Amino acid sequence: MPEGHSVHRLARQFADVFGGQELAVTSPQGRFASGAARIDGARLVSSEAHGKQLFLGFGNGLVLRVHLGLYGAWDFGGDGTFRGASSIGAPRRIGEREAYDGAAPAPYGGPPAPTGQVRARLVSGHGWADLRGPTACEVLTPAEASAVRAKLGPDPLRPAGSAWEDGGPEEFVRRLRRRSVILATLLMDQSVVAGVGNIYRAEALFRQGLDPWARGRDLGPGQALDLWEDLAATMADGVRQGRIITTRAADRADSAVPLWPDNAHYVYQRQGRPCRVCATPVAVTELAARKLYWCPGCQGAGPR
DNA sequence: GCCCTATGTTAAA
DNA sequence: TTAACCTAGGGCT
Known about the structure:
Elements: H1 4-18, E1 24-26, H2 33-39, E2 44-50, E3 53-58, E4 63-67, E5 73-78, E6 87-89, E7 120-123, E8 127-132, E9 136-140, H3 142-150, H4 168-177, H5 183-186, H6 198-207, H7 221-241, H8 249-253, E10 283-287, E11 290-294, H9 296-299
Antiparallel strand pairs: 1-7, 2-3, 3-4, 4-9, 5-6, 5-8, 7-8, 10-11
Helix pairs in contact: 1-7, 4-7, 6-7
This protein binds a DNA duplex through α6.
């Protein structure tokens, strides 16, 4: 799945291309037909990401909540105002960059006939957006949307102008340090920190020199805050670049293969290869049905 | 074509 | 802990 940075890019994209406009909302596939009818023709008035969830607010007060899950993605098309990403969501190739596909702006003749399973289609006078394969796509009242957000922890990418108070770094430190659960599990817990996924988990723990099997309560407040700041910085980079690059420039320069994506990560999907810092072979194990990558030299020997 | 994999979450067992 | 959700690409045959 797209981690939080992708959903924040989506929120920005929706505001850029659809903000303030009336949208025709349909469900070509049919599974979202009743929800689509509730917002069809309404004006898009807000677009905000919280962790991995997207909340689109409409002029009639209703909120469209989308969670892309493991496979979901949005495809965009339209006239020249649709600069920006052509597709944002689940990566279709290793290390795929979410970016404008380079096609020259063309006269907009309306959206193409939907192909395959399009759960939701949003159409303005300038372009369209198709949603495929989401885990969640539903229309909520404001109270229902707030109830969903209340279950999420603070988001390192929370927009400065957001009206939603998520507690920020202090709340993250509290939630992390009161648990006896291991860090590897806590970072994937969206009620502890919203938006972190499997790549940022592995890379942040490496960058901070933290043992994935250390417990939340074992961290000092300074260590926990450093972890937050590191996530905030690398995830903000992800928003800017449309891809996850966590290696520091100094650790990329001497790579034998200087071309991204071969040097984008320290440990993620680098099992068996030498650690960029200490040359110990990177290790991998399975934890709660997800792969966990770490360097036994820099971060500790492993499960215990 | 077939099988595996993937930046995720939820519900049932 | 496991299955289900449900999409597309890559490697293989």
